[in-house]
Write a structure and sequence with these properties.
Helices cover 23% and strands 24% of the residues. It has five helices and eight strands; from the N terminus they run ααβββββαβαβαβ. Helix 4 links the parallel strand 6 (128-130) and strand 7 (153-154).
């Protein structure tokens, strides 16, 4: 822990933070987002920690992801730290999120809400694909090595720029174990 604190103190003291904190900095852009084709589907394979953009049945982009801190198994309730599994829709974009951009996943489905009601539990919600916490995008090289979200799908800010450009509201997303 002391090593991490000292490393972060050094990085901040030499001025790296101002160069990398902004997702608009040239080093943060992976590809020009206007050149990214629109996705017809998004596929997430939790066990591989990968998100794929698909067009005409072919994967044309892939991204490393971090998941909920308790990533094995489907989400069942609020606070379980799991990322949902199943077929959903990416139904809206949220530019003013607590994270660098966010795209909402339509979890829970009506069937998942009904199952949770029968069990007397809250199924949770607010599942998103998002970038890094605001002002901490420069820590992605550390954060993306671990599952750290409350159930969301996290990517680097540069990857989020591409996904944001490629995905329109209404795009289906399939999340597999």
């Amino acid at each position: 822990m002391l090593r991490i604190v000292l490393t972060l103190t050094f990085v901040l003291s030499v001025g790296v933070f101002p160069l990398t904190a902004s997702p608009s900095h040239p080093s943060m852009k992976l590809r020009h987002s206007s050149s990214i084709p629109k996705a017809q589907k998004v596929l997430v394979i939790k066990s591989k920690r990968k998100l794929y953009l698909i067009r005409n049945g072919t994967i044309y982009r892939s991204y490393s992801i971090a998941l909920g801190r308790n990533s094995v198994g489907p989400k069942e309730r609020e606070g379980d730290g799991k990322t949902p599994e199943g077929n959903y829709t990416l139904d809206f974009k949220k530019a003013d999120s607590a994270y660098y951009r966010a795209i909402h996943v339509s979890y829970p489905t009506a069937a998942q809400r009904a199952a949770a009601k029968r069990k007397g539990i809250d199924p949770g919600g607010a599942i998103m694909i998002h970038g890094q916490p605001n002002w901490f995008g420069w820590l992605a090289f550390i954060r993306q090595r671990f599952d750290w979200t409350a159930g969301c799908i996290a990517v680097t800010n540069g990857a989020m720029d591409e996904i944001w450009a490629a995905v329109d509201p209404g795009t289906p997303i399939e999340i597999r174990p």
